[in-house]
Amino acid sequence: MSCLVVWSVAYPPISATEEGTTTMVRVAGRIGGIESHKDTIHVAVISGLGLDVADREFTTTQAGYRQAIDWLRAQDCLEVVGVEGTSSYGLGVTTALREAGASVIEVNRTRAAERRRKGKSDRLDASRAARAVLSSEASTIAKSDTIEPLRAVHNARKSAVKAKRVAWQQISATLINAPAQLRDRYRGLAEDKAVQRLIAARPARGTEPAVADIMVALKILARRHRALSAEIDELGDYLAETTTAMNPGLTALQGVGPVVAAQLLITAGDNSDRLRSEASFAALCGTAPVQVSSGRVTRHRLSRGGHRQANAALHHIVTNRLRHDRRTRDYRDARLAKGGTKAAATRALKRVVAREVFRALHGRCPVPDYSDPRPARQARNLTLAAVAAELKVWPSALSQLELGQRVDNDLVARYRNWLTAA
Asked: Helix (H, G, I), strand (E, B), or coil: what is residue 289?
């Protein structure tokens, strides 16, 4: 019998020894692998030497999951199971396996080179999932299914943003092809102003029915644009409330808004201990450099892999800090003064941000306390508008700061100093 080493935190079978924030589990014996689809799952079992033992297909229903678990238990391999698609088609069986006490390992899709060499079928893919666990190629604990509600809201907002952009593009294209008198009426207007005027318009059929028809189309598109804006605001408020409740340390980081925080939580999963180190999280986000050394040459290149949406979230954080954080700008300027490029400086900053995010995901990020400015302002009978005028900021910025919805250490320091001197 061979000995397999996998990482587990939430569901440690048999015996375990603590190492930092993770738990190492030693498993010996048979291993299960699952290839998941919309209507069926194919389950395979291999021995500790990697030899095929048995395989069987089940339906993606509660009864099918129970049958699959009973079959795996009869095969004496319910201890560790590798599942392909743990956050999509395999989510249901992953949840059922965890409830049965199994340790579920997330397995990536079969590589194209292996499919070309050995072919592809459900039985082969299920066996490959088990062998990926056996060889430690797959060693990451699957995400908890409790992150799925946040993913649903995030995806709904993303689709609303996309639909809003399409609606505005249709409005712009329609105005370009509209008659000159209609086009000139809305030329040069900002997006929100143009939508407001189009909604207030009263198209009437008169001497120019073609213009009236175009105005009807534009009015309907403008209403759609406004409705999508309301959806985006509503979903954004829900994301802000949910992400703050799930991880206040993450949302307290500068440059991390509700949408960015939601994406990072979805990428990492709410059982963030599945991420073994800062380096592994950086690799997951595509910010860890990849070594391409050979012989006497020692160098690294930019990672083109990783979760691209998480990489984009880190890029948004860096962009925000370059605009609003003096230390970030000083670091970039120092890199440029040494002959570096803006792209290289941005990549280095994303690596630093990935380290901060990893610590926040593990609860090691201090949450700033901004609860004192509001009572101090009210004790002096000062309004938000008056303070905002003195600090030369919008009143909404101070309101968000007082309510803990905005993180800006420089602004809160100015706010506190001004209240002390007032």
From this structure: coil
